[in-house]
Amino acid sequence: MTASTPRSINSSAVLGVSVWVGLLVVFSHWMGRQAYHWLPVQASNAAPLVDGLFSFETAIGTFVFGAVVSVMSWVMLFNRAEKYDETDAIPIEGNTRLEVIWTAIPFVLVMAIAVYAMRVNHTLGVLGPMEHIHAHDPIEMQGGYPGDRLPAEQVEVIARQWSWEFRYPGANVSSTELHLPLDQPVTFRLTSDDVLHGFYIPAFRIKQDVIPGRAIDITLTPTREGRYRLRDSQFSGTWFAANQADVVVESEDGYRVWLQQASGLPLRAGVSVAADEYSQRQQQQNPGWATVPPAPPPQVNVPGSLSLPHDA
Amino acid sequence: MTSATFPADPKPPAGWSRYFGFSTDAKVIGIQYIVTAFFFFLIGGLLAMVIRGELITPAADLVDRTVYNGIYTMHGTIMLFLFVFPVLNGLNNLLIPTMIGAPDMAFPRLNTAAFWLVPVFGFLLIASFFVPGGPAMAGWWSYPPVSIQNPLGHWLNGEFLWILAVALSGVSSIMGAINFVTTILRMRAPGMTFFRMPVFCWTALAAQSLQLIGLPALTGGAVMLLMDLSFGTSFYRPEGGGDPVLYQHFFWFYSHPAVYVIILPVFGIFSEIFPVYSRKPLFGYVYVALASFIIVGLGLVVWVHHMFPSGVAQWMRDLFMATTMLIAVPTGVKVFAWLGTIWGGKLRLTTPMLFCLGGLFNFVFAGITGIMLATVPIDIHVSNTYFVVGHFHYVIYGAAVMGIFAAIYHWFPKFTGRMPYEGLGKLHCLLTFIGANLNFLPMHPLGLMGMPRRVSSYDPEFTFWNVIASLGAFLLGVSIIPFLLNMVSSWIRGPKATHNPWNAIGLEWLLPSPPPVENFEDDVPTVISRPYGYGTGQPLVEHQAEIEQRLTLQEAAA
User: Could you tell me the pLDDT band of residue A140, with boundaries at 50, 70 and 90?
Assistant: First the structure.
């Protein structure tokens, strides 16, 4: 960067810098491609957009970082004071043209990134992953969820300390494992019974805080069959880390079959790692510091499992 | 009208004992701040070792989950409120009066009070480990409703003490900020106009102005939290009609600018140290100085970027993304200015210089992940994951703490009169740089893979990077040993320092090492040129040659 202002144009220096910049560009491009592999599998229609943006910024970031480190390394290698050289260097107090350039280029660059990201935001909003917040509706407080006023695939997500419950109001099914049909838009209505939670499915690149006193709608379309993890992403107390659930994306037919079978199953205790660990903890002499007791495991048709291998 | 007369101060005790009393001398208070801060740094570091010990295996098997939550909460709180802020205030106390030629701070007694609040709220915070139910366990953000759940229902609980400590910390910081701002505005040496002021003072002025603007919001938010916790109000309780997200606005309106309160003085340290060891003037001094205030302005309007997944409107997401990204511009101006400073210099890779170069490396990396985090769609995926933890540890440890170490090594001879040992210093620098990168780089892939922060257990696929991070953390733990050895032994028996061992330019280097109580007393030199005149041959002050000759003669006679 600063190499571009020699007092007299030195052709070998220009060539050297150009070759180095070219190498950096190639390396940055390669890093941008690599960036996709650092992320979980893409399992929703939001994922390719997010990953594309991340790859783009990784490439730009690699170039900027590489350029800065190149300058630092050059200086540390070749601009060291000789031993016993106590003199000062040639005093250069500044260069207004350079200042303008290195203010303008980052400005244009970050604004370009911001505009690109806003467009992705907008697309994501149209696709669904943009929340719609409702003031608390007394109907939901009573546990009534009339299926007729909701979109076809509507799942109610109830977050608690520390379990996730999923209700399918259309089929009158409840579960502690989230099942979703492939390539079908699905709307989640997120509510919390107690504190803040975070509805986070890394494979879907989606995250939304669940806020007590509000119902938040969020829509997405799963695009890949598999088993993924849903994790609580907003700290919720003692068993925060164990507040996970599995998300199963299956074919439309498979999903219908699952829903059909589930509706015939009797209610029983769902998965709650917190409730299990809490009962063990109560038997210990000195269990640790004070904790809020976990909510009882929700009564569901399908408890599901957390022990099967998951894709992401 | 009668003029107020204060009783003459009793003669301050000399020697070691003055560090244990209520001194009003900024140089004593500065060292009190720094030593106290490092005491708490060791406690916070020990907690970090427990955290990384727990996370070296996927299961929650080292400590109980409640203990883990308490420990990570206290780690963050101690490191911010009892280490970083006090250590920077220590540097402010040492450097601001000596750099601008003031005899002391503007309000010496206020200064004493501000410092002595630190051990008081430090004691409160540490005491919360021993109250029924344990310390606060809701993270250093202390988001309600989880922070006000108070499972035992006892009025004396960890969260109560936590809020009290944070509020007292705010009071102490406001007292400090008033003092630093007034001192810089009113007590500069003759001839030291704003554009002849060292950049460290510019950044301190910017950072302390931010404290004055932002802290009332945090204090107000904390008072409401305390009312909700202890007196049954419903500011944030949804069941009483309150809004938990409201707290997040109060909290981040201060706590995002707080990051600039930390990093701006470190930019100041970089701007002081790069010229000295490159033997060149600071490149674009005026731009670097002004960029601090642009960062202040922008820093006040970015706080919602901490809340992108919290349930904020789309237009807010877009707006705050744009303002956040704009911060890269003034920050970039500074980074390029430092590169311009070292470019073509005559580098001396001393310990402070190596710490600054390492800190710059880490800071640029953190800046790039910062842009990623500002980008809303990426942030939705990585917010509240280890990606964020990695990012801010690169900023706070990788850049800020390394800058603080650089400052300590650089100004150690000035304020103790002894030289620190170079070998131990370089070992400390190497271990810190490797340890920090080994510890914090693996957090980025973990976050991208989807590992949430603040977890006491995790899925087995995250094991590999967590083991590496833990090993890096233990290396960081070890890195502090050569530092402590160096500080203690060189203070006791290091070689005597001259008034200007680094051949640096600045008013503080025209004072004896250590400086007398009143610094220049009535004999303040008149500043006649800009700082950092390396290689220009221009003297900084009138009669500079005579002043230096007198100091050299004094040193020869001693």
Answer: very low
